[in-house]
TrEMBL record:
Record's keyword annotation contains Nucleotide-binding: no
Keywords annotated in UniProt: Lyase, Periplasm, Signal
Domain annotation Alginate lyase: ranges: 83-282
InterPro entries with a match to the protein in the record: Alginate_lyase_dom, Chondroitin_lyas, Hepar_II_III_C
Protein name: Alginate lyase
Gene source species: Sphingopyxis terrae subsp. ummariensis
Signal peptide boundaries: 1-20
């Protein structure tokens, strides 16, 4: 039997901790821990302002960012906050305002048809897409649950039958093409429908949310838990959408646990809900989500979705590391779980989050590749090499297999564009994804991976890409030599791509080096391009560029190339043995030198995004492209070296010149050998074998001396100027 949800919808604590909402006449003068007290005061300001403004439930007409869109968003927030404030204070003004808002929706909602601003998504009723209607219901049910028992039977019936049940019916039986998907839109729909079902005591709605419209289990919330997450809790669409999808997952899971504890929902599939929360925190740098796939770069842990996730995860686990995340967020939620979390933060129980290197498998069976996070220190802001060897990422995925990014204390150094979108900015096509999201942001050339014949991976068809997994061949997550080795066959017909990315700690250098060995192999003659998108200002280069500053030609005509202005084309100035082409740039207070040992005959193209952009939608960002033409295979060896510092206030510069003075690549037998020479003559050799088996023996001769290792990667310190 389903139990009352007067409190449980908002709480991720054991049911025994739940108490009835206070009687209407009760006035509470409770004192709260600072984190929770701040939420209470902020909510009071919001709701008091709404009470003063009066009920405003407009007929929907605007797309994202427009007045009616934003007003309905404000309203569901007020319903949530007002309900929680009534539970906490017993102030009947909060109850009555929430009631009046919901009564207004009960009057309006039955009159609505498909939203007039609907475009390329399933139309909602209150919003241009049904996704937002689901978000409305998830929030509104949680607020309504706190006042429902304090209303008259007639008021309850009007709200139940005029607003909550019709919304749930529309999002279930009325939207089979949405709720029946394995997708974040369906997760929000399932959560809204299921929460409404628990609140109304409607078993049919609950079962449809859990098991799909036909109740077979082939779709629905539980099936989404099976298919949308890898065994490590990595979400199919990437970190940005993991953040967004977490709220319905955790809020509905908390309600399931409260109403049907026998399901043991937090133990389901090896504890996948809680794994997903932990992984969501891990796929951040300095609190910001890694902008993989369709992602906005400004989304961080400081969002409502993660406030709920952290509070519910802490309630379920009592892991004090979650408290440190809450401290960093500076916020929590107005629920019993949020209150308990805030109290423990105030009691000093927080412990640091254990940031570490991780290999996050992708795909429901974990066999679709991986997102590899290589860190050399357990901090949120330290050096982080991100290696994207994942599956496509469904419709929000980009064509960027074997892509990489790099972060450190200065922020994003080797970058990813993310999505071309101005979220909810009405002037930018209603806040929807822009045309340039397809023509630029998702194109392969917009990423740091191999482009063949100026085409995107899988010819730009994500449905084809979704069927072709990436092969995560080998990795090491600790020690002075951390690495990821992966391959993809099928991104281009007849071309195999293999890439090793290594994070190298070297005594005497303040920051690790990032070594990249990428090999493309195929039949016929091809053009191979390897872009590097980076942040910062170019300082100098030993590449001799033929400057194109006056005419600034466009690099190509399609597949993202039409959006690149060419500023210069050049070749290496010094091709002597052991030398590499170099480009040095400055980001924040640090210098970065990108050393390249490309194939013979390679050219270098310095370009900037923003061409063929009539609505000025694209950010202007630099890119350096290594290009080789007319070959059946190519190996690109590159090294990113962070170095030095710049202090603007003190007007001092230290270490602006690169310490790496040589980068030499040799193909020896079944291995790639790279020799790195530092200023002063110190040399380091790194060997990456084709056979990555952990027990496979290998050896190479360097300067007449044999060096042996076992496994995928060997590393050797060499004597200055000769063999060790």
């Amino acid at each position: 039997m389903m139990r009352s949800l007067a409190l449980l919808l908002a709480a991720a604590v054991p049911a025994t901790a739940a108490v009835a909402a206070p009687p209407p006449s009760a006035e509470h003068t409770r004192s709260y821990a600072p984190l929770f007290a701040a939420e209470v005061e902020a909510a009071k300001r919001d709701v008091e302002a709404s009470i003063r403004a009066g009920i405003n439930v407009p007929v929907p007409k605007d797309p994202g960012g427009g007045f009616t869109h934003e007003q309905h968003k404000r309203n569901y927030r007020i319903i949530f906050e007002g309900g929680q404030l009534y539970r906490l204070t017993g102030d009947v003004r909060y109850r009555d305002h929430v009631r009046d808002l919901l009564l207004a929706y009960a009057k309006l909602y039955p009159t609505l048809g498909p939203h007039p601003a609907a475009a390329n998504q399933a139309a909602g009723r209150l919003f241009w897409q049904s996704l937002n209607d689901s978000v409305f219901l998830v929030n509104a049910v949680q607020g309504y649950a706190q006042i429902r028992d304090a209303l008259t039977p007639a008021e309850r019936a009007r709200i139940d039958d005029g607003a909550i049940r019709p919304m749930a019916k529309f999002l279930s039986d009325g939207s089979p093409e949405v709720i029946g998907r394995i997708h974040n839109h369906a997760t929000w729909a399932c959560a809204g429908v299921g929460l409404a079902g628990y609140l109304l005591g409607d078993r049919d709605l609950v079962d449809k949310a859990l098991l799909g419209l036909d109740k077979s289990g082939k779709t629905g919330f539980l099936r989404q838990l099976d298919l949308l997450f890898s065994p490590d809790g990595y979400y199919a669409e990437g970190p940005y959408y993991q953040r967004y999808a977490l709220m319905p997952f955790v809020v509905f899971a908390a309600a399931i646990d409260a109403n049907e504890p026998q399901r043991k929902i937090f133990d389901y599939r090896g504890g996948i809900v809680l794994k997903a929360v932990r992984t969501a925190i891990d796929v951040t740098h300095d609190g910001y989500f890694l902008p993989i796939n369709d992602a906005m770069p400004d989304k961080s842990l400081r969002t409502d979705e993660l406030y709920h996730a952290v509070a519910i995860a802490y309630a379920a686990t009592r892991d004090p590391a979650f408290l440190s995340i809450a401290e960093g967020q500076g916020h929590t939620v107005l629920t019993p779980a949020g209150e308990a979390l805030a109290a423990d933060v105030a009691a000093g129980k927080a412990r640091p989050w254990p940031f570490a290197s991780r290999l996050l498998s992708d795909g429901p069976d974990g066999k679709g590749g991986a997102l590899v996070l290589l860190r050399d220190r357990p901090t949120a802001t330290g050096p982080l090499l991100v290696v994207k060897n994942t599956v496509q990422g469904m419709g929000h995925g980009h064509f960027d297999r074997l892509n990489w990014l790099y972060y450190d204390e200065t922020g994003a150094v080797v970058t990813d564009y993310g999505a071309a979108r101005f979220l909810n900015v009405e002037a930018k096509r209603g806040g929807r994804y822009l045309p340039e999201n397809d023509s630029w942001a998702s194109a392969t050339v917009a990423h740091n991976t191999l482009v063949v014949d100026e085409q995107s991976h899988f010819a730009g068809d994500w449905k084809v890409g979704e069927k072709v997994p990436t092969q995560q061949l080998a990795s090491r997550l600790d020690g002075p030599t951390r690495y990821s080795i992966a391959a993809i066959n099928g991104a281009y017909k007849g071309v195999a791509i293999r890439r090793a990315l290594l994070l190298l700690d070297i005594d005497g250098l303040g920051n690790p080096l990032i070594l990249d060995i990428l090999r493309g192999t195929g039949g016929g003659r091809h053009r191979f391009d390897l872009p590097l998108h980076f942040s910062g200002q170019i300082i100098d280069s030993d590449i001799v560029f033929d400057r194109k500053l006056a005419e600034r030609p466009v690099l190509g005509t399609a597949n993202g190339y039409q959006h690149l202005w060419v500023d210069g084309v050049g070749s290496a100035a010094d091709k002597a043995a052991g030398k590499a082409a170099r480009l040095t740039f400055m980001q924040g207070n640090r210098f970065y030198s990108y050393h390249m040992a490309p194939p013979a005959g390679a050219r270098f193209i310095l370009a900037e995004s923003g061409a063929n952009d009539p609505e000025f939608n694209l950010r202007r960002q630099p890119v350096l492209i290594q290009r080789i033409d007319g070959t059946d295979s190519a190996t690109f060896v590159s090294l990113l070296e962070p170095h030095g510092s710049y202090d603007a206030s003190a007007e001092t510069v230290v270490g602006s010149r690169a310490r790496v003075v040589g980068l030499d690549h040799r193909r020896l037998g079944d291995a790639d050998l790279v020799v790195i020479t530092l200023a002063g003559g110190r040399r380091l050799a790194v060997a990456v074998a084709d056979n990555v088996a952990a027990d496979a023996p290998h050896s190479v001769a360097i300067d007449g001396t044999a060096h042996s290792w076992t496994g995928a990667v060997g590393r050797f310190d060499l004597a200055k100027g000769g063999a060790k």
